[in-house]
# Entry
Amino acid sequence: MRTPPIGYAGLLPLAITAAELGADVLRRYFRELGPSQISEKLENDVVTDADHAAETAVVRLLHERTPELGILAEERGASGQSEARWVLDPLDGTLNFVRGFPHFAVSLALVTRSGIELGVVVDPMRRETFYAVAGGGAFRNGVPITVSRRQGLAGAFVTTGFPYRIKPYFDDYVAIFRDAFDAVGALRRPGAAALDLAHTAAGIFDGFFEFGLSIWDVAAGMLIVREAGGKVTDATGGDEVFRNGNIVAGGPTVQAALLGLIGRHLPESRIPLP
# Structure
């Protein structure tokens, strides 16, 4: 088990404070946005004043407390030259937020050349904070969490996300979805990948898969799942999630079974890239 440098582990309280600050901002905006506060970045991809306000609050605190670290934030991009950088999604599940569906999150991770050092996912409306430090286990509101120990897909409770960013691969995804629907006990699509991963780490979901995600969607949740005893890979079973945006996570047995199911429809040569 890899133990991070003490300096990075010591930044966990700051990370929790920063992510919860972003969550406070989101709660103030929730169901209060007007049309002029919502704009479309790309097709099926919106941004709101709440995204910007939460990101500004989190980034300001991180800059003040750790000026030596870089920051990669979804809305403002990258800043700083350090190989160690904060990776922030100030509002994962923006469309849920816009429509008043109370299922969205703040996701914050510290990523270095060695890997993901710590991760925090905050559910603002349920006031749940999931977090982990590399080598230190995973927690929800201070209580240890572990992944499900389900032994296979039969009866499994699995979550996914629709690949709206990579529509040319939708037919492949539908084939995977159809097989997964037949194989598992129940299949859900809540619409916030960071929370899907946090809930998988807590054993709520037995497994999760999605394609075409960005690093800020998954970095924190990946570490939390791994520290909760789970397995996280890309869709080929490799470790290129940040490069290709494809992720399969869960308890070890369910994750392996999902990889096998996906592999029948999505050979390596056709793995989608965002």
About this structure: The two ends are 31 Å apart (CA to CA).
